[in-house]
Amino acid sequence: MTLVRPSSALALASLTDPALRVRAVQAASTYDVGDLVQVTHAYMLAGSRRGARTSPRTLEAYALAVRDFVPWAQEAGVQLLRPGRRDGGRYVAQLQTRRSLGRGKRGQLSAATVAQYVAGARALYRALRWAGATEAQPFEDAHVPPDPTSPIVRNPPYTREIDAALAHCDPRLAALLLLCAHAGLRVSEALGVQTHDIGGTRLTVRGKGGKVRRVPLGRRVRSALTDLSPVGPDGALFAWNYAQATYRMGKAFRAAGHADAWRGFHAARKHSGTRLYRATRDFTRVGLFLGHSSVDTTRRYVAVEDDDVQREVEDF
């Protein structure tokens, strides 16, 4: 799969209005997946609320969704520029009844995957409207039922797996895992750390939407970072992209005997949030540590024990 380079999307966004409209109309009329991904990325980088600060992972996720939706639309007889008012709902229903083809996965697509695909398809139509190709909004009334399972139950934090996997990591991979599991960084934030970001016991982190926060580093994380030499002239400590880091960490979990427990880096971030909450009992402080703008988000990162208030209610 070839991903669209940001430079290509920005070049597309620089076209005149008539030229952009022609390009988008031609792509939609011929079900040209590659060009429609480019139009979507151009909109995300130059027309969406986040603009050029849209994360690479969001762009990749929307590209995957467009690559799924467009072939389905062609096979289902949907005219992309003139879809029927029920076509969005048809696509949602098809996703909800589709069997997962992922390695090691069984059953139907998860609610989160369905929501991600629909979000990408909606972004495609925002992009087509932005390009002047259509005013259609086939997903306006399409309902995507939320997953009734709590996020912390679907993807709980790692526990003993962290130390077990660390024993099978080289120093650089161990530092990456500690940045996520002990310092609470998103993996994209951790992969972007440079030597000049480290200042004593704190780390300057550039997070979502360009937000900057200062994260305290424990002794174990500081030690791991001190032992690393930069991999580039800019002081970057990691040369891996997300896929490369995921592959390496998956190998470490397998070597530690926890292959079935590997659920990506997000569970490591939840590990740090859960440990900090148990130490502070303060969602606000945990949210600031993790870089959340809402405490409601933080609650989805913390595994709270069922009897968390047993002591408090004992003498009610």
From TrEMBL:
Record carries keyword Transferase: no
Pfam families per UniProt: Phage_int_SAM_1, Phage_integrase
SUPFAM superfamilies referenced in this protein's UniProt entry, alphabetically: DNA breaking-rejoining enzymes
A GO molecular-function annotation: DNA binding
Leader sequence residues: none
Segments forming domain Tyr recombinase: 151-315
Domain of life: Bacteria
Gene Ontology terms: biological process: DNA integration; DNA recombination
Annotated keywords: DNA integration, DNA recombination, DNA-binding
Keyword Ligase on entry: no
Protein name stated in the entry: Integrase/recombinase XerC
Organism, as annotated: Deinococcus budaensis
Lineage, uppermost ranks: Bacteria, Thermotogati, Deinococcota, Deinococci, Deinococcales
